[in-house]
Design brief:
Elements lengths: L6 E5 L4 E5 L11 H23 L4 H18 L6 H4 L11 H20 L7 H11 L38 H13 L7 H15 L6 H15 L11 H6 L1 H14 L2 H37 L6 H13 L2 E2 L1 H8 L3 H13 L4 E2 L9 E2 L1 H5 L2
Antiparallel strand pairs: 1-2, 3-5, 4-5
Helix pairs in contact: 1-11, 2-4, 2-12, 4-5, 4-8, 6-7, 7-8, 7-11, 10-11, 13-14
């Protein structure tokens, strides 16, 4: 990486834009510390990926990972929706928070849509555009060319482009740069470890900033899409936005340092540490989920004829850990009085906790499960 040159600042009159170097070329790694971190990251990802095979019905738990990613990635951009609120219906969210709630739900839909699309088409600019279109649907930014690469200059920070913190490449080079990024993602002639490859792809995407809005969220989503597309993860169970949000200033500084100092080494180290920490947390979370599930099922088995309905409710709660009695009627087919008795059973067992404080229309949360995330 000693010969790496990130790009060039180009004068555009009263401001300078940054023109990044292409990615699709041979790369040579000569840093032993990066190789050591790469080995650890591969090992932890392999351990995490094992849960995709050995946890029955793992798809039950993926919606929580997606919701956490959506809330944390959106939080970096300034929204305030938390994971509990993400599972509420829109009318149950405070009016002043509904715009944030919609942005988070768009992100959830964008993730789910893009993951599903990987079965039909590979990681590509087309897939990225589709995700971006969903992300900006009906929210702030909806008039900023959703699903289309920008046709004008954008910038980060500053009251105007003249005092911006960073100005991405000019718009007429976006298609060429994104084409290079896509070719790099699928080029097996130039060997590069996949985790370093996706670290580079994320950096380059955040540098190109091909959309007028939503680049940060889409760029973070690309990491998981790439790992699933390449078969490194069988299921979308690793997301880095929580790590990036907790280390927000380092995240921005390390990205910027690549551009200003051609220092790709520090970015790689930061990214790999994020993979290692996030994978370890994921493993701990899955272990805790399995223990919680066993304990609850053991308790439910003592409930006799009601155990079947209680297990149905639990399977719903693992996917959506917020519930009302009316939803229990819908998913189990029991009467309203029976649904309230099931709620009482789960509250008494410490599974559900009332979160609204209202006398009517009470909403309950699967508190112990939510806290794991």
């Amino acid at each position: 990486m000693k010969d790496f040159h990130s790009g060039t600042y180009v004068s555009q009159g009263y401001y300078k834009s940054f023109q990044p170097s292409i990615l699709n070329r041979p790369w040579f790694l000569n840093d032993m510390e990066i190789q050591h971190l790469l080995s650890k990251a591969d090992r932890q990802l392999g351990r995490l990926d094992m849960y995709s095979e050995y946890i029955p019905n793992i798809d039950l738990f993926i919606s929580m990972h997606v919701a956490k990613e959506a809330t944390q990635s959106s939080k970096i951009e300034g929204t305030q929706t938390n994971i509990e609120e993400a599972f509420l219906d829109k009318e149950d969210v405070a009016i002043e928070k509904r715009n944030d709630w919609e942005e988070v739900h768009n992100y959830i839909d964008a993730i789910n849509g893009a993951i599903a699309q990987l079965d039909k088409s590979p990681f590509s600019s087309r897939l990225i555009k589709q995700a971006h279109h969903i992300l900006l649907r009906g929210v702030r930014g909806e008039h900023k060319l959703p699903g289309e690469f920008r046709t004008s200059q954008n910038w980060i920070g500053g009251a105007s482009i003249a005092d911006a913190t960073f100005v991405p490449p000019v718009h007429h080079s976006v298609n060429e740069l994104m084409s290079d990024l896509e070719q790099f993602a699928h080029n097996d002639d130039y060997f590069m470890p996949e985790l370093l490859k996706v670290a580079l792809i994320h950096y380059q995407f955040e540098t190109i900033r091909p959309f007028l809005d939503g680049n940060g969220r889409v760029g973070r989503l690309l990491i998981t899409l790439y790992l699933v597309d390449k078969g490194i993860l069988k299921k979308p169970i690793l997301y880095l936005s929580d790590f990036f949000e907790r280390n927000r200033f380092l995240y921005y500084d390390n990205l910027m340092r690549v551009r200003t100092h051609h220092d790709l080494t520090q970015w790689f180290k930061f990214f790999l540490v994020g993979i290692i920490e996030t994978a370890k947390k994921g493993i701990t979370t899955f272990d805790a989920i399995l223990k919680l599930k066993r304990d609850i099922e053991a308790e439910i088995q003592t409930k006799g004829t009601r155990s079947h309905h209680l297990l149905t409710v639990m399977n719903y709660l693992y996917q959506r850990p917020i519930i009302e009695a009316s939803k229990i009627v819908e998913i189990t087919g029991v009467s309203a009085p029976t649904a309230y008795r099931l709620v009482d059973e789960l509250v008494g067992a410490g599974v559900l906790k009332e979160i609204t404080g209202g006398k009517r229309g009470k909403i309950y949360g699967f508190d112990k499960y939510i806290s794991l995330f």
